Amino acid sequence: MGEPATLGEVRTWPTLVSLAQAARALGIGTNTAYTWHRRGDFPVPVLRVAGRRRVRTADLLRYLEADGGEST
Fold first, then answer.
1. Fewer CB under 10 Å: which end of the chain, C or N?
2. How far apart are CA 30 and CA 35, in angstroms?
3. Strands 16-18, 47-49: parallel, antiparallel or unpaired by DSSP?
4. Please, what are the domains in the chain?
5. Using a CB cutoff of 8 Å and minimum separation of 24, what contacts does 13-18 make?
6. What is the pTM assigned to this prediction?
7. How far apart are CA 71 and CA 58, in angstroms?
8. Average pLDDT in the 35-64 region?
């Protein structure tokens, strides 16, 4: 899984990120992220852009900030 992204790092990301990168911000593994997405349990909206799953960085930031700041 690697090291979770800090809130400060997420703030520097582009407007849209991959589901794998969003998983890193949430401190979860990529497989878990895809499982949650398939079940409809991913905590932020997931978009389909050119056949790929993308997450808005702004949605991630809102979620992380509401969850108390830094991802764990």
1. C
2. 9
3. unpaired
4. 7-66 (1.10.10)
5. 13/57, 14/57, 15/56, 15/57, 15/58, 16/47, 16/49, 16/54, 16/55, 16/56, 16/57, 17/54, 17/55, 17/57, 17/60, 18/52, 18/53, 18/54, 18/55
6. 0.86
7. 15
8. 96
Answer yes or no: is pLDDT of 3 > 90.
no
**CA gyration radius for the chain?**
11
Contact in structure between 34 and 43 (CB atoms under 8 Å) = no
Q: Is the dihedral of CA 53, 35, 1, 27 positive or negative?
A: positive
Strands (E), 1-72: 16-18, 47-49, 52-56
